[in-house]
Specification:
The structure holds two protein chains of two kinds. Chain A is 71% helix and 0% strand. Chain A has helices at 11-21, 25-47, 50-66, 77-96, 104-113, 122-127, 130-141, 144-155, 160-167, 171-192, 196-208. Chain B is mostly helical. Classes of the chains: A mainly alpha, B mainly alpha.
């Protein structure tokens, strides 16, 4: 586990959590409205499906509310919430055995229509640069664990220590996971671009890593 | 191939803003919390009924153990400890093979105490000893 400095809670957050611990549901609603958007976006980027992301958010907040009485202010509430969300996202993905699409367009179309999101427009894809499309597919092909780390780092801009607290591992492991995630992205992009030289290079880099090769597809 | 941190960040942001936040999430959560509360109330109600049932079950189990352990110990244990001496005579059809018999004294044994060894014989080889 990462060694964290003593967490400083804001007065409002502290008071809200204490009220929640006393069973005040309106306080929990306020906490929900504080974190709802961030947690939903995080879940969406990890599970890549709006309705699944909604399930993740609901389950995560329910779990947090059910066990908030045990929260002892030793870690950040945000880290705890995200940890529950990460675990929930991975569990839901495993449970439903979602297979990532290799073809970006139909996959993206289904993701966006699920849960009432706006539909994917082919002309948008034409406007997107080819590299961006390739990167999108590559991110989609990452396994959920690496994708969670990438999303926390690049979208939520968490520090390595904060990610370590969320994932429940030392900061060094976070760094190595990020490095590996980048290599996996490079490998996937090179493969999509039909560059065997780059594929071989990234494969060698991945093989030199101590951790086992993570499959691109689940 | 361009794959830098900025590109990843921009791509993730683009994906994140493309999907609207569902507005019925709190309603679903609230419904689940209501169910939890109703379940807790039901559990509390049944708990008051369950306590005597549990106590009764525990008392019954204790009584059964008492009957199975303590009652036989007075009445039957003596019979188990001191079985009646067999009054049978060994015959060639006796299937009890491990009857101790005396063997010859070879003279090598220490004189202080007579050596008795036990050997196993088949019932057909068994010679009744005369007392």
């Amino acid at each position: 586990m990462a060694e964290l400095e003593p967490v400083r809670f804001g007065d409002i957050e502290f008071a809200l959590i204490e009220r929640c611990q006393a069973g005040d549901r309106s306080a929990f609603e306020e906490i929900f409205s504080l974190y709802r958007d961030d947690v939903f976006r995080f879940a969406f980027l990890v599970v890549r499906d709006a309705s699944l992301a909604q399930d993740v958010v609901q389950e995560a907040f329910l779990k947090v509310f059910r066990s908030i009485a045990k929260f002892q202010f030793r870690s950040s509430f945000k880290s705890w919430l995200y940890r529950v969300a990460v675990n929930e996202a991975i569990t839901i993905l495993r449970r439903r055995k979602i297979k990532e699409e290799l073809d970006p367009a139909p996959g993206a179309a289904r993701e966006h229509t699920a849960g009432g999101a706006r539909e994917w427009q082919p002309e948008e894809a034409a406007l997107d640069s080819e590299e961006r499309q390739i990167l999108r597919v590559a991110i989609g092909q990452l396994d959920p664990v690496h994708r969670s780390v990438v999303v926390l780092k690049y979208f939520h801009e968490f520090s390595d220590t904060e990610i370590a607290a969320v994932i429940g591992c030392p900061p060094g492991t976070v760094k190595s996971r990020l490095h590996r995630a980048r290599e996996l992205l490079r490998h996937s992009m090179a493969r999509q671009m039909g560059r065997p030289d780059l594929v071989a290079l990234s494969y060698n880099r991945l093989s030199n890593n101590n951790s086992p090769l993570v499959p691109l597809e689940e | 191939m361009r794959m830098n941190d900025r590109a990843i960040r921009e791509e993730l942001r683009k994906q994140a803003i493309s999907v609207p936040i569902p507005d019925d999430m709190w309603a679903n959560i609230s419904r689940e919390l209501d169910k939890d509360a109703a379940k807790a109330v039901r559990r509390e109600r049944t708990a008051t009924v369950r306590v005597p049932v549990r106590q009764l079950l525990a008392f019954g189990a204790a009584a059964a153990v008492f009957w199975m352990v303590l009652i036989p110990s007075g009445k039957y244990v003596d019979r188990i400890k001191q079985p009646a001496a067999p009054k049978t005579i060994y015959t060639t059809t006796d299937t009890r093979w491990d009857i101790p018999t005396r063997t010859k004294v070879t003279g090598r044994e220490p004189q202080s105490e007579p050596q008795v060894s036990v050997e196993r014989r088949h019932p057909t080889q068994m010679i009744p000893t005369s007392k």
